[in-house]
Design goal:
The complex is a heterodimer. In chain A, 66% of the residues lie in helices and 0% in strands. Chain A is mostly helical. Chain A has a single domain, classed as MetI-like fold, CATH 1.10.3720. The longest helix of chain A has 37 residues. Chain A is globular. The two termini of chain A are 12 Å apart. By secondary structure, chain B is of the alpha/beta class. In chain B, 33% of the residues lie in helices and 22% in strands. In chain B, the strands form four sheets. Chain B has an eight-stranded mixed sheet with strand order 6-7-8-3-9-10-12-11, with helices on both faces. In chain B, helix 5 packs across helix 6. Chain B starts with 10 loop residues before the first helix and ends with a helix. The interface between A and B is large, with 47 and 64 residues.
């Protein structure tokens, strides 16, 4: 759907090449695909949103892979400053009620979220794309039944749904990933379904049917490659939501592990009550970390979307 | 835009000033950060009360010029130089408020697709009235004015139309509504951008009649953009031929079309089948190469790369403007050598049509069920295709042409009793249950190659898949076969590794044709294969189809609304109306002799580039719904020769007038030969 249209210009794709024409008409004198890609990447690299997004997300990725190079403390190590100390040169972001360094806990907290959010997004994308393609191509009763199921899922409040799943299957990481994926599949399915419906109406699908191709071939080989751009955009957008959803679950105490683990959502929930006593730093800084990661991912998602459609 | 000059023209000056003057306009579109030149100095004027046409291939800047005429540019459009003036006032220097006032009160634009030009959720009355409210009328006044405006564009029962929504109107009706809205301000300048491109020939003729009539009534200036040269010829006083963002020739329509003085104009005119040209007479001329893309850096004469008479001078020097006659000029170095522009090649091969019927359509009816009602889309259609024969299929949209094609291809199953036969043997109804031989026997070329080719696949993969699937050839043999086919279509191996979007419209259609021939088919169904293409590219495709047919001995079902193209390519023509064949006969006979009244009306509706004025027979109203066909002869509601008491009661049989020429009509040859009643035609002119 994207990338084929020049924004605003009612003229065919421009070109730089001066290739000779062997037939009576030459190719839209191909500014080849490479050229377009190159220009799209230039638009991407030069957009401030993308640069800021990459810096933010890059920082958190470093934190999750090598937390040791960003802090010399351990997340569960008493620091000399003592408990409930304001941000200072000794403890950059202060210390919490247990005497743990807030900065260190924020750095160490990145790992879990940066593992679970992308994996659950990936699972949701794979399942959602598959279902969306099937529904969009076959339509009919397959579509009817799956549509009703999706509507049913969407009609249950997210938190309620998560509580049901987690209390039924336990709090292991696998269940958390599964829960977030289940929550996201309906929205992704709908997006891909509408794209697949539009594709199925195109003549290349009619042509494939006329030469007797199987439905499986048409869906996976003919239609799927034409919706990958949309899948990428959908994936980056969902990743932002997945981060939110995970921290929400962590805040509510639904994720496994110990409440002393370094985890942004858990840290916020463990410390937010103290805001009333003016001890804001142990909860606000993890919250800010969540916000920065979501903003960073969204900035990247927006920039990719813009570049793909430019 | 830092024009400081103030414009307060004298009243006398204003009256004499042209309705639109474009002066040395240069424009670019900014695409992915780079400005790309689209207009390279366009200069022309449209005098008051004059109709000016712009022609040229797509991508030459026609539409950009039209939009620039109202300074209505997309957000990435930049004016680099030049001015646009209307009635002496400079549009390029106007503030946003002045511009808005100008567009509201003095200029209007009608777009190509009326469906997109109206708001689908507002009633027609509300929308038309809105145009008057902008002019300062009260709600009640505006309603009265809207009713009058709809009457002015000849909409039947305007009161009821006011209460309807856009989706309840046909394309032709909607375009009238859009024109009515455009006329709300009695514009001094009316810009029409391909106003009839998506419409049927009969509807097109009606809309053009309307514009012509309104023009004499309003005395407004018209700028008409069209790729159909016939439309320009019949509608305009003067015409400018655009190429690569410049006007290369300008003059009165008669001068330019009868005495073209630029190699490009000559090429364009030679590429359309004119004056009853047939494939047996001569090939069509196709201008070599393709129009340059926007932003390309071009030599001094922009046309030099495609020009058959270019010399080195054309690269080094800007061509001068050469006056040919009063008001007719061309921008060419070599006006004296125009005779050297090659004429289309005469055809020497003989087109050989077999006698044995290869594919037969026997008593095929197709009834769809919609909301519990039967909708007959095809009724008792009989057709046969001999080897190497082209059957042209014409008729308005909704007449069942595509349903017939899809039924033949096994997308729809015909009703009980009808059958598609291959050399006498009945084929299975659906493509999925047909044996391999039957699937191979019929293939299709679609109207729009963008939709017909998988964007994600390379050309090689597209062709390879069809070869493997249809012929069962595998491995290296399949690769070889793909290259053979591509070569036959004049596609180079370089094209094979490209994706459709990297190819021009003409090349894409070649790939689509190559795919259709991959299985060595008996019949190729061509559904408007050239209607999305420029005339020069259309010529190349028609030449290719004619040549392939001779080499491969396959038959064509050629569906088109362009009578000229059908006449050029088809050996026989069938005319369809409401799912029935109304007339069928050899092409020669169809254009010479007695015709069914419907055919007669269709043929008279075609705007001719040769400027031969003919009496047009109007087809009033639109084609009836197949769900509710009129009793008796289905055409009697729109027939100008209908006999009261007979035609609305009994449906006529298909009778043979001469060998191979049949019509479905009650009238005798003598009755059909009678001149048409004067009042039928007179209402037009």
């Amino acid at each position: 759907m994207s990338g084929t249209q020049e924004a605003g210009a009612p003229a065919p794709t421009p070109n730089e090449s001066t290739e000779d024409a062997t037939s009576t008409e030459s190719e839209v004198p191909a500014e080849g695909k490479k050229q377009i890609r190159k220009e799209q990447f230039r638009v991407l690299y030069t957009s401030p949103g993308f640069i800021i997004g990459v810096l933010i997300v890059g920082f958190w990725i470093v934190a999750s892979v090598l937390p040791g190079i960003l802090t010399s403390f351990n997340p569960k190590e008493f620091v000399e400053a003592g408990p409930r100390v304001r941000p200072s040169s000794e403890a950059w972001l202060g210390t919490d009620k247990n005497g743990w360094d807030v900065y260190t806990r924020v750095i160490y907290g990145a790992r879990k979220i940066l593992t679970i959010a992308p994996i659950s997004t990936a699972v949701a994308i794979v399942v959602g794309t598959f279902l969306g393609l099937i529904m969009g191509y076959y339509k009919g009763w397959v579509d009817e039944i799956l549509s009703r199921v999706i509507e049913a899922i969407l009609s249950i409040p997210i938190i309620l749904m998560a509580i049901v799943i987690i209390f039924t299957f336990g709090r292991s990481t696998t269940v958390i990933i599964g829960t977030i994926a289940v929550l996201f599949v309906p929205a992704i399915t709908r997006t891909i379904r509408s794209a697949a419906i539009a594709e199925s109406d195109l003549d290349y699908v009619v042509s494939a049917k006329m030469r007797g191709e199987s439905g499986f071939f048409i869906v996976t080989r003919e239609i799927l490659p034409n919706v990958t751009g949309l899948v990428v955009v959908e994936g980056t957008v969902r990743l932002g939501y997945a981060i939110f959803t995970y921290t929400t679950l962590a805040f509510l105490g639904f994720v496994g592990g110990n409440i002393t683990d370094a985890d942004w959502g858990i840290d916020v929930s463990q410390n937010y009550e103290q805001i009333a006593r003016d001890i804001w730093w142990p909860s606000i800084f993890p919250a800010a970390a969540i916000a920065s990661l979501v903003i960073g991912v969204n900035l990247i998602a927006d920039s990719i979307d813009k570049a793909v459609n430019s | 835009m830092t024009v400081t000059e103030s414009h307060t023209p004298e009243p006398a000056d204003l009256a004499a000033a042209p309705a639109l003057a474009v002066d040395g306009l240069e424009m670019s579109y900014v695409v992915r950060g780079t400005p790309r030149k689209i207009l390279r100095g366009v200069t022309f004027e449209v005098r008051q009360g004059e109709a000016y046409g712009l022609v040229g291939e797509s991508g030459c800047g026609k539409s950009t010029t039209a939009y620039a005429a109202l300074r209505y540019l997309p957000s990435n459009g930049v004016i680099d130089a030049g001015r646009v003036l209307s009635g002496g006032e400079e549009l390029t220097a106007m503030s946003a408020i002045e511009l808005r006032k100008f567009r509201a009160e003095r200029a209007s634009m009608v777009f190509q697709d009326p469906v997109q030009a109206v708001n689908p959720v507002l009633k027609i009355g509300t929308q038309v009235a809105e145009a008057f409210q902008v002019m300062g009328q009260s709600k009640a006044e505006a309603r009265v004015s809207a009713l009058a405006a709809l009457e002015r564009v000849h909409i039947a029962a305007p009161e009821s139309v006011m209460e309807r929504y856009p989706h309840q109107l046909s394309g032709g009706m909607l375009q009238r509504v859009v024109i009515a809205m455009g006329l709300a301000c009695d514009p001094t300048l009316l810009v029409l951008d391909e106003p009839t491109t998506g419409l049927d020939a009969t509807v097109e003729a009606e809309v053009l009649d309307l514009v012509r009539e309104l023009r004499s009534e309003l005395n407004s200036a018209i700028l008409l953009i069209a790729h159909n040269l016939g439309v320009i010829r019949t509608m305009c006083d003067r015409v400018g031929v655009m190429y690569a963002g410049r006007i290369v020739e300008e003059g009165t329509v008669a001068e330019v079309f009868d005495n073209p003085s630029h190699p490009y104009t000559k090429g364009l005119l030679n590429s359309i089948p004119r004056r009853g040209l047939r494939k047996t007479d001569s090939e069509l001329f196709s201008i070599p190469g393709a129009a340059p893309p926007i932003g390309a850096s071009l030599p001094n004469c922009t046309f030099v790369d495609r020009c058959p008479i270019a010399t080195d001078l054309c690269r080094t020097d800007v061509p001068p403007i050469v006056q040919r006659s009063e008001g007719h000029w061309t921008r060419c170095h070599h006006v004296d050598r125009l005779d050297e522009v090659p004429e289309p090649e005469k055809v020497t091969v003989k087109y050989d049509i077999g006698t044995e019927q290869v594919i037969g359509v026997e008593g095929v009816s197709k009834t769809f069920r919609q909301r519990g009602r039967d909708v007959p889309a095809l009724v008792g259609v009989n057709l046969g295709f001999a080897e190497g024969e082209t059957l042209g299929l014409v008729g308005e949209s909704g007449s069942g042409k595509s349903t017939l094609a899809k039924t033949m291809l096994g997308v729809h199953a015909p009703d009980e009793g009808g059958a598609i036969t291959l050399r006498g043997r009945t084929m299975a109804d659906k493509a999925t249950s047909r044996i391999e031989e039957s699937v191979r026997a019929i293939s299709m070329v679609f109207q729009n190659p963008d939709s017909a080719l998988n964007r994600a696949w390379t050309v090689r993969r597209i062709l390879h898949r069809s070869v493997v699937k249809l012929t069962g050839v595998k491995g290296a043999a399949a690769d070889r076969r793909v290259e053979e086919i591509a070569e036959g279509m004049q596609l180079s191996t370089r094209h094979l590794d490209m994706r459709p979007r990297q190819l021009s419209g003409g090349l894409k259609q070649r790939v689509a044709i190559a795919r259709a021939f991959a299985g060595d088919p008996e019949v190729v169904v061509c559904d408007e294969p050239t209607s999305a293409l420029d005339v020069s590219v259309q010529a190349a495709i028609l030449n290719l189809l004619a040549r392939l047919q001779n080499e491969e001995r396959s038959s064509y079902l050629f569906i088109s609304h362009d009578i000229g193209v059908v006449r050029y390519l088809a050996d026989r023509i069938a005319v369809m109306y409401l799912g029935r064949i109304m007339e069928i006969g050899a092409t020669q006979t169809m254009f010479e002799g007695v015709n069914h009244p419907y055919t007669e009306a269709l043929l008279s509706a075609v705007p001719s580039v040769d400027g031969v004025a003919e009496n047009r027979i109007p087809l009033t109203g639109s084609i009836p719904s197949p769900a509710n066909p009129p009793p008796g002869c289905v055409f009697h509601t729109r027939c100008h020769r209908a006999i009261a008491g007979l035609c609305e009661v009994t449906e006529p049989e298909l009778v043979e007038l001469s060998p191979g020429h049949s019509i479905k009509c009650h009238l005798t040859v003598e009755q059909l030969n009678e001149p048409i009643k004067a009042d039928v035609v007179a209402t037009l002119s």
